[in-house]
Amino acid sequence: MNDIEQPRSYDELNALVWRKSTFSGDQGACVEVAPLPDGRIAVRNSNHPDAGAVHFTVVEMDAWIKGAKAGEFDYLVGE
Questions:
Q1: Would residue 4 count as lying in a domain?
Q2: Which one of 3, 16, 48, 51 is least enclosed by Cβ atoms within 10 Å?
Q3: Cβ–Cβ contacts within 10 Å for residue 56, how many?
């Protein structure tokens, strides 16, 4: 176990400032991200916010975003 403070409840997660891609439009297919107080980044499905969130470090998110921009995950969406 680590000493990193994590939001533990729906209310704590819901109080974060969440953002989603403008590409998701009004289709309800929204992945949201929010900065956590300890510097990590939370990711959740906006259709199911009560399901919680996955937390990543900035280094982890940076690597994933760079991979997405390079097209490494395009096969997941049929491109």
A1: no
A2: 3
A3: 17
